[in-house]
Automatic annotation (TrEMBL):
The protein's name: Glycosyltransferase 8 domain-containing protein 1
Pfam families, A to Z: Glyco_transf_8
Membrane topology: Single-pass type II membrane protein
InterPro entries linked to this entry: Glyco_trans_8, Glycosyltrans_8_dom-fam, Nucleotide-diphossugar_trans
GO cellular component, one term: Golgi apparatus
UniProt entry tagged with the keyword Plastid: no
Keywords for this protein: Glycoprotein, Glycosyltransferase, Membrane, Signal-anchor, Transferase, Transmembrane, Transmembrane helix
Membrane among keywords: yes
Family according to the record: Belongs to the glycosyltransferase 8 family.
Natural source organism: Coregonus suidteri
Length: 370
């Protein structure tokens, strides 16, 4: 064998050895990532996180304690999350970091929207939600499946998406913040409580109510108390419910109590036994939260979650003075502030930033409309 052939054989062997070493290192890295993320759900793909917003202007960089805010971005509601983030950011000097959970096919649109507006100067991460995470946890009934939006369950997985955070805020996209988010973040949670919510029986909204709301406000409106699995829990059907559109979470306590696993258990059981109320009007994410946090959650200042602005007659229910004084407004209900029939759309319009790709268009009444 010539010297040249010997050299070629040696090079080939070295290349094979190098590839084997690389493969082993990658496998070790995967094991390391799994060990470093104990809260990751078995079988779940770890979320992809984009880099923080690049090249922030030095005069716009905010320092101090980070305030992680988790919010979802659905393609058909992208204008909502833009308006919500803009209102949060412009009304505070705090060091806010937005963790935007979205689907893979929405990323490009979201990035363009962020980059072409003043939101490019906001610290943020984009996290991809993997729908297969919900396999076996939601109903297979075609009629009900149509109303299931995967991103609504993102709030269940906050410790997975931001594993280093000890505390975080979750916000629905149909909100506008008018106060300083630092105040909400500073909400005090009782010892052993993993989350704080705004109870549906609180009296704050009543200050601005002109006529009775008639909204669901107790457990029987969300759970079927005739089912044996619900009966065994010993919960009172008339217990005041809460709205999970705004959450202040102690993620350290959340992980310690395995809250995510508990929520998934009730999701799976509901998929098998249909435990939720037949008259359920709100999000299907609410029932498992009501069960897991039954009489074991702290309270948010009611003015930090003034809701039902998306319900019928909200324009007559709340006075303009009350809406102006609210720290956070939530258009939960059928009528959203980017649609023609919603109330107080002028408040939402103040924070909306036009879509540079011209895909999202708020619907507004014209002068000739009745």
């Amino acid at each position: 064998m010539s010297l040249r052939r010997v050299n070629v054989v040696i090079l080939v062997l070295l290349a094979v050895a190098f590839l084997i070493i690389v493969q082993r290192n990658l496998l070790n890295l995967n094991d390391f990532l799994i060990s470093e993320n104990p809260d990751a759900v078995p079988g779940m793909l770890l979320p992809f996180e984009s880099e923080f917003s690049p090249e922030l202007r030095p005069d716009l960089v905010r320092t101090g304690e980070k305030i992680p805010v988790v919010i979802t971005a659905a393609e058909e509601r992208l204008g909502a999350v833009v308006a919500a983030m803009n209102s949060v950011y412009q009304n505070s000097k705090a060091n806010i970091v937005f963790n935007i959970v979205t689907m893979n096919d929405t990323v490009d649109h979201l990035k363009v929207w962020m980059s072409k507006t003043q939101l490019n100067n906001v610290k943020h991460k984009i996290i991809i939600f993997e729908p297969q995470l919900l396999n076996g946890k939601i109903t297979k009934d075609p009629q009900k499946l149509e109303s299931v939006k995967p991103l609504t369950f993102a709030r269940f997985y906050m410790p997975v998406f931001i594993p280093d955070a000890e505390k975080a805020i979750y916000l629905d996209d149909d909100i506008i913040v008018q106060g300083d988010i630092q105040e909400l973040f500073d909400t005090s949670l009782k010892s052993g409580h993993a989350a704080a919510f705004s109870d549906d029986c609180d009296s704050a909204s009543a200050k601005g109510i002109v006529r009775g709301a008639g909204n669901q406000n107790n457990y029987i409106g969300f759970l079927d108390f005739k089912k044996e699995a619900i009966k065994k829990l010993g919960m009172r059907a008339n217990t005041c419910s809460f709205n999970p559109g705004v959450i202040v979470a102690n993620l350290t306590e959340w992980k310690r109590q395995n809250i995510t696993n508990q929520l998934e258990h009730w999701m799976e059981l509901n998929a098998q036994e249909d435990l939720y109320s037949k008259t359920l009007a709100e999000s299907i994410t609410t029932p498992p939260l009501l069960i897991v946090f039954y009489k074991h959650h702290s309270s948010i200042d009611p003015m930090w979650h003034v809701r039902h602005l998306g319900a019928t007659g909200a324009g007559n229910r709340y006075s303009p003075q009350f809406v102006k004084a609210a720290k956070l407004l939530h258009w939960n209900g059928h009528y959203k502030p980017w649609s023609r029939t919603s109330s107080f759309t002028e408040v939402w319009d103040k924070w909306y930033i036009q879509d540079p790709m011209r895909k999202f268009h708020p619907v507004r009444k014209h002068a000739g409309d009745k």
